[in-house]
Amino acid sequence: MSMEGRTCVITGSARGIGRGIAEHLGAKGANVVVNYRSSEEAALEAADAIETAGGNAVTAQADVAVREEVEHMREICHEAFGSADVLVNNAGITADDQFTEMTREEWDRVMDVNLGGMFNCTQEFYDDIWNADEGRLINISSVVGKQGNFGQANYAAAKSGMFGFTRTIALEFAQGGSTANCVAPGFTRTDMVENVPEKVLDRIVAGIPLERLAEVEDIAAVVRFLASEESSYVTGEVIDVNGGMDL
Ligand code: NAP
């Protein structure tokens, strides 16, 4: 599954799942655009790690919720590597509250980054992916988009919104031979779950048939397959990577 010569833009890839994806693709020889919003130092470290592993990397600061910044990220990508073959919409946030307490601001913030960011990035890189040989759009959703989760009405709505979006773009892209898929991770050991009390995590693990949380590598390995030319007949799918949570 060599990624040599393929240019991959991964949003939110200075840390967490995005970082794992960036390093996996980089280790297979990809040209990687490491996007960050605020974690500049971590982004530079990620770029170094990719180059050491044999890939090429450039960092691009952009808040995915701000269209002009995403446009600038596309310019950085084009200048460094030319047009993109793969876009991974990974950047995401939570702003949890029981629904009666949830503010409109918390709702909008989650929509702006998780769905608005996906809109901005997909539109900016649409022509690149359409015209690429084996172009790939990969959206990182969540098991929460399927199952819901207490206190996450905003996040669950955004993450299930990604499913319909992905299927629609898959239909549009199909005419040009590119694909669009979602990956729906289960609970994964990153900063995002760091504030979840250990007791709650234990309860979550008790409900996972494989009896552990996901590691970023578990998610990155599936994304790497989808990003490769070997997944060319898979499109419009939601691939669950959740240790069997919905069995
Ligand atoms: P994380 O550790 O909190 O990292 C989030 C990443 O997103 C950071 O790199 C952050 O960049 C970036 N980001 C946030 N807002 C951004 C914005 N407006 N513009 C650009 N980048 C932005 O999260 P994670 O656990 O790796 O999650 C990655 C994705 O997987 C998210 O979409 C999340 O919803 C999804 N997911 C996570 C889990 C889980 O259990 N961890 C489960 C299912 C799905 P900066 O640091 O530069 O701000």
UniProtKB/TrEMBL annotation:
Top-level enzyme category: oxidoreductase
Enzyme Commission no: 1.1.1.47
Keywords associated with the record: Oxidoreductase
InterPro entries, A to Z: KR_dom, NAD(P)-bd_dom_sf, Sc_DH/Rdtase_CS, SDR, SDR_fam
GO molecular function, one term: glucose 1-dehydrogenase [NAD(P)+] activity
Superkingdom to which the source organism belongs: Archaea
GO process annotations (BP): monocarboxylic acid metabolic process
Domain Ketoreductase: residue ranges: 6-190
NCBIfam families according to UniProt: PRK07231.1, PRK12826.1-2
Entry's family note: Belongs to the short-chain dehydrogenases/reductases (SDR) family.
Protein name: Glucose 1-dehydrogenase
